[in-house]
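Following up on my earlier thread - several people asked me to post the actual chain instead of describing it. Fair enough. Here it is, all 344 residues.
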Amino acid sequence: MLEQPAHASTTTVQPTARRIWLPSLVGTLLYPTLIQLFGWAMQAYREAGNPFFAGGAAISMLAAGSVPFVAVRALISMSDEESSRPALTRGLLYLMFAAPPAYVLIFLLASKSGIFQYREAVWISAWLAAGVVLTFSKAGTASRVHVAGVTGLRVIHGAIALCLLGGFLVTHLVNHTLALWSVELHTAAMEWLRQFYRSEWVEPVLLGMLLLMFLTGAPLVLHHSQQRPDTFRTLQMATGVYIGMFVCAHLTAVLGARSAGVETDWFFATGPNGLLDGRGLLIPYYILAVYFLILHAACGLRIVLLKHGVAAVAANKVVYGLAGAGSVVTALTAIAALGFHIQS
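Reply from S.P.:
Thanks for posting it. Predicted structure:
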């Protein structure tokens, strides 16, 4: 029997990398269209009362809301062999995961820069370019980027996150859940809380802490994009990118409105009749942000527990428990944001 040359096996076991990112890219490209379809279907339902249009609206919104989950599935199942440049692929998949706040940010920036009518063209062009880069990138064309002081960055990031959670974010989420009872109750709590977090010495500190969260979080995402993380680390990185993009969009909207003298209250965020009444763009943007914030904090807590000797099984259960609680909080705030209140 003739022996196969030694190099033959090495040439046959290197197939073209699977386009594991392709479904996520397609979903991201279609995201603006899905949001528009939702708006058209809801308008048709209000005019005709036909449940067929309501069903179409629900399907469109579910499809739009699934884009981050398609991206994170690709991230979790991806191996380094399935991409010529895995760090680049992971980085772009993280951005696809953050499609809802990224599109809101494009929406806001386009309206402020006078190119509002071209916002979809900008979105589609950017993601088509990303697809071209992923398709034709070659292995070894980019060197590994060293991120110095990863441990220190993680400690600073976690410490600031703990301060933000305790001093602002937890009460902010609780305040939003109060809107399920009535907008008046939410408004009363908001005005009381604003005496603290909008004071002249607290608000700049909060904004500075958010900036530090971004400055310490971005290098951590870069560091972990260059290695194959486990599922919990992947979820932590993906949700961190989502929250970072959300904060950029949210501050752009809120600070811009405040500078124009607009009250940034519940109705500013949801409209007078809830997000279902013409603000479909903000449904996945807001609702997913609540859940991903809690999930991000849960994954971060898991790392702290593991560093302090807690068994992995117990630390994982903490994540599952907080994720379940996050689902409840998300559902309550979502019902209120969609326009349903126990006491109208």
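Residues 146-344 form one domain. That should answer part of your original question.
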